[in-house]
Design brief:
With 332 residues, the protein is α/β, with parallel strands linked by helices. The chain has one domain: TIM Barrel (Alpha-Beta Barrel), CATH 3.20.20. It is 40% helix and 13% strand. The protein contains twelve helices and ten strands. The strands form two sheets. A seven-stranded parallel beta sheet has the order 1-10-9-8-7-6-5. It is globular and about 55 Å long. The mean pLDDT is 98.
Length: 332
Amino acid sequence: FIPMRFVINAACWHHVDQGALQDLMEAHPFLFPDFVRQEKITPRYGLNQRRNVPYTDPWGCVWQTSDDGITGAVHGHPLADWSNLAGYTPPSPETTDGTFPIDWGQIAERVGQQRRAGQFIQGGLPHGHTFLRLQDMRGYDNLLFDMMDGRAELQTLIGMVAAFNQQIVHNWLELNPDLMSFPEDLGMQVGPMLSPDCFRTYIKPVYAALMKPAREQGCIVHMHSDGDIRTLVDDLVDGGVEVINLQDLVNGIDWIAQKFAGRTCIDLDIDRQVITARGTPRQIDELIREEVVKLGRREGGLMMVYGLYPGVPLENVAALMDAMETYAGYYA
């Protein structure tokens, strides 16, 4: 079977009929094998997902969102002015992953339980660990100007962020995970958020250093990025990525097939913008079938994931769940 994951964003539960959505989950046990129906689902929102409640993360970045359950954007950048760098103290990787507080003792206990249960163990860095962290601390425009100008302060900040992340990776590797994930959005709707030259100069060396110990220990190296990353993927794979999670229509199904099918494991992020949101059930079925046929192989090498957000008609949600369960067994 092709591994299929259907992830429901927390905001959905106050935007849709809970009973109707739970009916669909109940009807699709392949996608939701552990589902237990509840009278009322009240999600616990992340610290940066609470409506009109600003959250200051351990690096000093201030997050805000206008909808419960939707991850906010950073509106306050602690190093927007380089004059603040001299007195800046980074957080400790022993108490935080950089975005939220963490307890390594609890993580070790959970990993032990997973191992005893024979489960697949996944570790990794938080989403937005390097490029986006730099952006959050400086601001997007400032960061790109820093890269183009070759500011010495930027190298200092990169070193600070890299050292923090290296310790997070080290702590995870001591727990012997099966897979290490390095999620970070690098793409826009068209093209990457930074030039390939800037990526190679400032970000790729950091990625390579973070991924190297994971590969040396025998972990699978997984990378996620939203957006159009076609001009960056050669450097990502060259830098150590073994499983690439990228968006289907933004990058192009045929391009993904030509680039990766049968060579690099594809963790395909199913369209959330066009067909599933505004298309017909038939178009949704055709999309999933096309992706399975063009990107899959009997030997494996394809996984698929869908993230449900508010605004998708329940008719389309049902069609997508049906298609994912149907075509999961296409090569069986």
